[in-house]
Each structure stands twice: as C-alpha cells, then as structure tokens.
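User
Take a look at the entry that follows and flag anything odd:
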Amino acid sequence: MMKRSVIFFDIDGTLLTNDKELPPLTKEAIFKLKKQGHEIVITTGRAPFMFDDLRKELNINTFVSYNGQYVVFEGEVLYTNPLNIPSLEKLSEIGLYNNHPVVFMDHVDMKANIPEHDYIKESINTLKIDRFPTYDPQYYKGRELYQTLLFCLEGEEKQYEQEFQDFDFVRWHPLSVDVLPKRGSKYKGIEKIAKELRIPYERHYAFGDGLNDLEMLSTVKNSVAMGNAVEKVKKVAKHVTKRVEENGIFHGLKMLGLL
C-alpha cells in the first residue's frame, strides 16, 4: 500500500484554467488521491469565500488561504497572521493620493476604499467569482485583515515597497498586487498544516504556477510547476508538468508516481 502523502495545490492556473474551469481529469485525480488516503490541501492567494464552491466540489476542508495568512485544518481555524493596521491605514491614504485604490480583506468579505475604479473591476473580474468589493473606506477598523489588494501598474508598487517595511507586495495581475505581512507566504501556512499532519517531509508535494508560489515550490520537497507557470517559478521547482488545460495535474501526479 502506498504511504500517506500530503499534496498542496494552488488554484488559479493550477487546479483551474484561465477560464476558471476544473478539468475533469484533475477532479478525477484528486478523488483518486483521497481514496488512496493522501491528504489534499488547497493553497491559494484567494480569500476563503472565493473558493467555497471548489472546496465543496472536491470535498476539501483543509486549506491555506491569503497566501498563508489564514489557515484552516479540517474545518477549524488553525493559524492567522493579520496585517499591521496603522501601516495599512497609511497605505490606504497614500494609495488614494496616487489614485491607487486598495481593497481590504478579512475571512468573510472585502471592501474598497473608493466607490469604483476600472483597475478593481478589470482584475477582480478575471477571478470569475460571484462577489465584488463594495465601498467601505473604514473597513480596516476594529477587525483583523489578512490581505489587501493594491491596484497599480507594474512597477508602481516599488514606491510602496520602500515605504512599508512591514509588508510584502506580490503581483498577481498586471493591475494589482497582494499586500501581505512581511515574510508571510504560502509556505508559512504549509508549515502549520504539516505540523498537524505529521507526514514526513519526503512525502510533501506541491503544485503551483505564480509568483506567490515561489517560496512554496522552492521549499517543499517534491515541487511541480505547471507548464503555464512563469519562468521564474519553473526554475525553482523540482519538476515541470504540462499546462493546466492539458491536464497538467494528472500528468504531474503520474510523473511523481502518485497515480
């Protein structure tokens, strides 16, 4: 019998295609892994409320969301790492001055500090979710926020990187970057899950494609970059599989001997 392993899967560009569809062979592969007794963990930059349907479809109750800042193990919150609120308030003020809006995010909702903006609309729409940030410039007050979206053109985040030493900025769209607590990453969340599962490091696997997967794929023992991954990600991964729409998950799992 195959020894129990844990496999961490990114969502966008990994489990889901650019059209946000789950390839049938990917779904079949996930259920085969589960039947074999392996642990499946969704590991994403998305908010928990942005992948409810996917978790239900795949029957997965353990996940790393917000790039490691909000971690749930078997349906229970295991770890949180909120943003520094005074710094976030300052970021919002500077962003408004520069016409760079922000969206505040906790585990249940997301609110924008501006009524509307083309950058917000264009980037959020690519996620193809049934929710859109509404206007509440004071949403950061009195609650923990685990990630914020800053909307600006590529390169314009540099000024914020210099100003805010307690944040990391990771681009996920040509018009938007994730704002995370300093040194917060998917892998930090993975460490929390791994401690609970007690599965040896040699049987840890991870699949991803984006810049927010860099630390995960460079650190997890058996890492796989999707064929559609950015080159920087492919260079740090141990293996490269086919593109997501070419059943990259299925082929990658076969390559690793897990299927």
Summary: The radius of gyration is 18 Å. The longest strand covers residues 167-173. The longest helix spans residues 85-97. The chain has a mean pLDDT of 96.
